[in-house]
Amino acid sequence: TCTVLAAYDVITFRRALANDLVQMAEITGANTTTALISQDAQSARKALSSLRLQPHIVDACIYARDGSVLATYARGHSAPAFIPPPPGPEGTAPTWRNTILFQPIWLNGKPIGTIYLKSDLEGLYTRARHFIEISLIVMLMSLVTAYLLASRLQKAISNPIVELARTVFAVAVRRDYSIRATTSRTDEIG
């Protein structure tokens, strides 16, 4: 059950992340249309800098219509090493470490550029760790509860059955058919 729930959670998280990336790309792309038309790299960088409020965005890039890089954004530690990839096909591409989105930027029904967003999956891995921790705690509590119930019920259920088995064994070994089982209860087990 935990495995099925974990798989469902991963799938829904990835879908939600892809939807969030598309919405973020649409908003950021709309904010860069003027910069794309005028080829103003400074304005495009300023529009991309709003992505710093999104902690899961690792890298971003605005491409002009011809595929040249107009502006880039890189989160903190990856800033000096970020080299924008060549523009790819439209849509999201999930990997084990991140999700990448390429989406065209439209103006009056015509593409004027492309936006690239790369999101890490730290949120997913944090959720998975918490899910595993909670699952382990629930399983441990279930085992402890089962052990306590079994140890309590063992005396009520097992002792009369063990007593009956001893009586049967004594009758079989001694061939004394006068030995009788004693009943201490009047319920089904007795």
3D structure, described in words:
- The protein is α+β, with helices and mostly antiparallel strands and 190 residues long.
- The chain contains four helices and five strands, in the order αααβββββα.
- It has a five-stranded antiparallel sheet.
- The longest helix is centred in the last third of the chain and has 53 residues.
- The radius of gyration is 33 Å and the shape is rod-shaped.
Concise overview:
With 190 residues, the chain is α+β, with helices and mostly antiparallel strands.
N/C terminus separation = 38 Å
The backbone outline, from C-alpha atoms, is rod-shaped
**Strand arrangement in the largest pleated sheet:** 2-1-5-4-3
Total strand segments: 5
Mean residue pLDDT: 88
The biggest sheet, with number of strands, parallel, antiparallel or mixed sense and barrel status, is: 5 strands, antiparallel
Order of helices and strands: HHHEEEEEH
Share in β-strands: 15-25%
Write the layout of secondary structure elements.
Layout: H1 2-31, H2 33-38, H3 41-49, E1 57-64, E2 69-74, E3 91-94, E4 98-107, E5 110-120, H4 122-174
Antiparallel strand pairs: 1-2, 1-5, 3-4, 4-5
Helix pairs in contact: 1-4
Which keywords apply here?
190 residues; alpha+beta; rod-shaped; 5 strands; 52% helix; 5-stranded antiparallel beta sheet
